[in-house]
Write a structure and sequence with these properties.
Layout lengths: L8 E2 L12 H13 L4 E5 L2 E10 L2 E7 L4 E7 H11 L3 E2 L2 H16 L8 E8 L2 E10 L2 E11 L2 H42 L2 E3 L11 H11 L1 H4 L6 H6 L1 H19 L5 H4 L43 E3 L11
Parallel strand pairs: 1-6
Antiparallel strand pairs: 2-3, 3-4, 4-5, 5-9, 7-8, 8-9, 10-11
Helix pairs in contact: 2-3, 4-8
Amino acid sequence: MWNSGPVKTSLSIPGWPLPSGNSKWQMEELEQGLLMQPWAWLQLAENSLLAKACITKQGYALLVSDLQQVWHEQVDTSVVSQRAKELNKRLTAPPAAFLCHLDDLLRPLLKDTACPGKATFSCERVAEALTLRVRSELSGLPFYWNFHCILASPSLVSQHLIRPLMGMSLALQCQVRELATLLHMKDLEIQDYQESGATLSRDRLKTEPFEENSFMEQFMVEKLPEACSVGDGRPFVMNLQSLYVAVARQEIQVGQKHQGTGAPQTSSSAPSQGTDSQLLNQPEEPVSLAPSLPEPEKEPTVPSSPVQRPQLLKVKRKKPRGLFS
C-alpha cells in the first residue's frame, strides 16, 4: 500500500562528491572564482540588473548590482543544506546535488541564452536587502530557491568594480597611445611611397595625416556623449567582458606575487582549475582590449610591404629612403 504522507525524492550526482578539506582554502577558491567571472546583464520584469556568480561543490558566491547599489551572498554547503530543507521539504539530496541544479539554472541566465520553461526568476528588495527568487523543477517536483543578498562591503565593491574598471581604463588608454603611434608610422610609410613617385589608384582611399590633438578634440565633442552612455549597464557587459576577465586575472596574479611563498597552493591555483572547481567559468579565448565595433571595409589604404602594392601605381622608380633605407 502507498504511504499517504508526503513523498520525498532522494537525489545524487556522481560527479559531485561531498566537499572535504580546508574550508578556508575552499572559500578563497570561491572568492577568486567569482572575481574571474564577467558581469552579465539580467532583465527581470521591471528590474535591469548586473550579476555574476560562481558555483562550486563547496558553495556559491553571487554579486548583483543595479548600478546604484551592490548586493552579495556567499554560502557554504551547510547553509545550502539548511535552506534546501526549508524550501523543498519533499526533496532529499546532498548539498552538491542542489548546487549542481542551481548551476544549471543560472548558467543560461548569466550567458543571456533562452531557456523557456526551465526556471522563473524574480527579485524583491526589502530595506537594504535583495532576494533573488528561483522557481523550477527537480526530478518532477517543484524546486524553490532564494538567494538572500545583503549590501556588499566597500572592499568587495572595490575588488569587483572599482579596481577592475580602473585597470580597464588604463589598458584602453595604453591601447590608444599604441594605436596613435602606429598611425604616425603609417603616415611616414605613405609619405615615403609618395616621395618615391607612387600614386593612389582610387582617390576615395586617400586619408589626411593623423593629428592626435585634433582627433581627441573632435572625439570629445562629437563621440564622447554616445561613447560614455552607461544606460542600464548592458553596453559594458556586451562589449568588454573579455577585457574585464583579463584585468581580473592580472589582479589575481599580482596578489599572488605579493603573498609570496606563504600562500596556500590550493588557493593560488584556483583560477586555472576546470569546471570541477569553477562551474561558471567560460573557456579562455584570445583577449581583445578593444570594444566590439563594426568591422571596417577590408581594403587596405596602404600596402603592407614593398613587394605587394596593388593599390599604388608607380610613376618612377627611385632609391628607397626614410623608413626603408
